[in-house]
Amino acid sequence: MGIIGLHHPVDLPMARGRHTRRRRTGTIALIVAIAVGVVLLLFGGVAYAAFRYERGHADLILPGVRIAGVDVGGMTRADATQAVRAAVGTQLEKQVTVTIGHDHWTTTLGALGRRAAISDAVDGAFAAAHDLGTLSRAWHRLRDASVGIDVALDYRTTGQGIDDWVAQIAEHVAVAPQDAAIGIAADASDIVMVHARPGQKLGQATAAAAIRRALNDDRSNVRLQVHDVQPKVTDASLGRTIVVRLDRNRLDLYQGFRVIRSFDVATAKPGFTTPNGDWTIYDKQVDPTWHNPAPDGWGAGEPLVVGPGPGNPMGPRAFYLTAPGLIRIHGTSDDASIGRYASHGCIRMHNTDVVALYPLVPVGTHVLVVGHRPAGASYWDTPPAQDT
User: Fold this and answer.
1) Is 366 a catalytic residue?
2) pTM of the model
3) Which of 210, 236, 249, 354 could serve as 349's disulfide partner, Cβ 3.0–4.6 Å?
């Protein structure tokens, strides 16, 4: 009994101390839990309110967002697109000038096919502030506080605008090269010397690339260069030309612009024509066969064909011309006719002269017939210049 009495006074106070500490710890935890819950509820409520507010204004760009300097904050997609398009319209009316030498050509950026990627920029304006988070975006909207974001506006050049413009400029500045030649005066009275000169040409691919670089660099002035185009025939390379002068009954052989041989000839008598013009030798023959060119006209009574030999009307050599009327340069069986207006249109030469000329003149040589038979000349007459 004594032991039992001693045990209870010691054991019971210790149990009460532990229970008191447990009750205090539980109370503190409960208070903390309630406080955290309240905070979470408050934060959740704020977050939910911000989410609802942001969703309700998601069709509006955040305050302080600009596209290429145009303030689109608070605008809908349609309003932002219209505002940027108005600014772009002014930009695309800016002029671009191309200069070549002292000449200038001007057009607008829009005419060259310059376009702005407005839709992409507006997409960027809506997406630019997503990194801020829902609460931050809602806070900026509520306070109308600028987010300070400027979205770049990309420009692109599309279509054929540049190429078409360059083609027009190239056509304007193009100068064809002039080959050296001996030509005929407008009234066919004499020849004219045409000296070679270079032309000029604009390289269109190079020019278009230079303009595109200028647009990308936001430059409004482009200076281009033309390059020379050399003639195919220079004064030094001009070959041989035959000139037949009807007012003198003379044939001159030119090497370039210099006469290297001259011969007396017979040309058409009255009633027939040795035609003025620039003709070409398309064939030449040794000991040609003569075919009567007018068996029902002036050749009536003459043989239809005369083979090579002393009696052949064309002599030992013949050059065939592109001139109308079967015109030839040839020798003759009537040596006394040389220097006179005596042929039916052909150009007759002394046989020795036509033989000398033959190796000097290739097929393809130009034959210029200039001057005019004197109006009062009769058959067998000689030019006045030969009478003196």
Assistant:
1) no
2) 0.68
3) 354
